[in-house]
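User: Can you fold this complex?
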Amino acid sequence: MSALLQLDHVTIRFGGLTAVSEVSLDVRPGDLAGLIGPNGAGKTTVFNLMTGVYQPTSGAITFDGRPTAGRRPFELTRSGMARTFQNIRLFRSLSVEDNVRAAMQVHRTQGPFQSWWRGAGFRRAEAEVADQAAELLSIFQLEGHRHELATSLSYGDQRRLEIVRALATRPRLLLLDEPAAGMNPTEKVELARLIRAIRDRFQIAILLVEHDMQLVMDLCERIHVLDHGVKIASGTPEEIRRNPEVIQAYLGEEHSLPA
Amino acid sequence: MKDAGARRWWVAAMAVAALLGWLEPRLDIYLADVLARVGINVVLAVSLNLINGHAGQFSLGHAGFMGVGAYAAAAITVLAGPHVLPTSCPDWLHQGWFLLALAGGGAAAALAGLLVGAPSLRLKGDYLAIVTLGFGQIIGVIVRNMEPLGGALGLSGIPPRTNLFWVLAAAATTVYGVTTLVNSTHGRGFIATHDDEVAAEAMGLDTTRYKIVAFVTGAFFAGVAGGLWGHFKLTISPKEFDFNRSIEIVVMVIVGGMGRTAGVMAAATVLTLLPEGLRLVAGLSPSLKWVGESRPLLYALMLIALMLLRPQGLFAWSRARPRPA
Amino acid sequence: MAELVQQLINGVSVGAMYALIAIGYTLVYGVLRFINFAHSDVFMAGAYAGLHVGQRMGGGSWAGGLVAMLAAMAACAGLGIVIERLAYKPLRERSKLTVLITAIGVSMLLQNLGQLVFGATPVAFPETLPATTFTAGGVVVSSKDMVVVGFTVALLGALEFVVLRTKVGTAMRAVAHNHQAAALMGIPTNRIISVTFGLGSALAAAAGFLWAYKFPRVDPYLGVMPGLTAFVAAVLGGIGNITGAALGGLLLGVIETLVKGSRWSTWTEAVTFVLLILVLLFRPAGLLGRAQAEKV
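Assistant: Here's the predicted assembly.
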């Protein structure tokens, strides 16, 4: 199976600092993959490279067989890559439902003139969007809050809404940036269940960037480990657990590997 | 506003406009004059609110777009009109020509909006404000250097075509245009862009395009307002469309509450009536004459007090936005 | 040729004054991140203060002129600090737009107060400093231009000393860099912001005084055009950057004077803004400013 997202010897430098060096990895359709590493390993930078926020200094990134270079983030999203944010970034003056609806605009060709004319086609499309949004929200048990402002939700619900909003763009690859940040152990278990359910229900690939080892080990089928901007290992949780370099990297940070 | 409801609202508003237009000859001249100013300011404020309030792009050059519209529309009636329409032709043809002039004014302003917006909308916040401010100044300089448009002295002899019907019809259409645009899946892109540009891009929204659509639409209606203004004042000069005028419109948006069309309409109305009211108070007795003289001072104090005490706007009654269909 | 040199001298002297005003915009932007629209009216107030003290001093003497200028600077430093305390400080945590609108309100207030206190009609500015002209190689040089440039250079030197060599200056730079971190390090940020407003306003007052000395006519709207141009200069140079502001001011002064002296004099103001727009399109953070990418 060919890769959906491929990083080929990607390097990025900020001034004199090489933040990420020669990283190669791939995500295949339907993968449930994790990108881990100690603090400062360059996880977020890799994430930003994947989503087009940064352009690599050298190396190439391809999504669905096409290079991502020169494409703006919204274009990447339109081609089937969606993301969430580490620090929640919902549209704060839109309702829960409208957060989802705004993201659904991606695959529509409605323009301002349709909005003004409000013809039958426009109304049909709007109704369709509303239905789809309602359906998505009900899958994630958020339908009861749909008219509330997104920022009035509880922290956990806001995290969930971010995922729903990303799914509304109908991605084939969902990138989750530290989805477990700020969650307690029970919430993390719930999150792992949710992520697995999303992969099974929507048949998409998911890559999460996380520093919570436990979560990634439990959830992911393939794991890539970064340390100091370099990829030090890739493999199944079992392989990663036994990898001496990984143990070394994490021991240096007073982490013990979960058995 | 529901989809069908929006159009019904517009039809009703047009009916009211027609009624007032029909009543106008029977109205007090002063009252009709004030009503026309209110309507033109509503068009200006509501259209700027689309740019500043909904789409979150801070423009300080709205009067510049108004000026472009005013001069373009006046050029159509004053310079081109006599070549196309003989003075003897029926009134409805002149009215039709005026509608064309208003649309032309709007189109010219929209084009100017595209020219200014396309390169500069990637600039953030303050920088965009400065570029739009600069645009307003440049328009003034260009007009001053255009002899056929009357230069610095201004263009006079514009036919008195603006009446209450046209003003209110334009106001109703502006409100309709802005509200329907914002309350659609497409239009929610404005608010998303305003709230968080990075997140909007990540959700597949072409933020640049949204900004341009908002900017160009706003400029179009400002141009229409300019066309109305010219055929209302009958003489226009570049000074009327300067920075101070832009600020006046910005203040209406701020006082009304950014992104709240109803509040902004109320603010445009109240702020247009305010000087008239003060003038009235000053005329009551000689001991109150100072009220009339210190109008600008009171205005400035009011603005500062408002920002200190109620920065969300005077007419921002509730936090909730009008719920779309 | 002689005419060109003369224009250049004139342009440098106008540019020097723009630089003084522009630095005030940039200083305030540096610490508070907003455009202080009222700054141009502090400039106007400086001209009036210079006028009134100057008249009392008798005028025409170096000592008298210097006292008048220093008095104007002190008065306006006070004015700037009072404005910041009353109008901007309560808005410290509010949106930038709120502060911007307040600044516009303060600007209108100062203009109208100026009209009320000083009258709306322009008044002549007295010869507060001695002035002569001399000719060198066909070029007529007014001593006014030399005074303007001389004072500006001295003031810029003093500013550089304050910002780079004193404790207050270090604190100013710290606050500009990161408010919260500065506060956590024990820097009294409110006092530093006051000092910044005071410094910027004093420079604006000096510019106002020099402006009225060079173009001896003062009215309550005196600040509007120089203020706008200086503001453009600050943005052109890279707002927040003192050297950039000085460079931008000088550049605009020279270009403006050259255009004014040419066949295209009626296009002067447009040239300023077209230049600004062009610079921003290619260097969105200004000539010496550094673009900052948003953190994700």
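Chain B has one domain: 3-244. Residues 300 and 306 of chain B are 10 Å apart (CA to CA).
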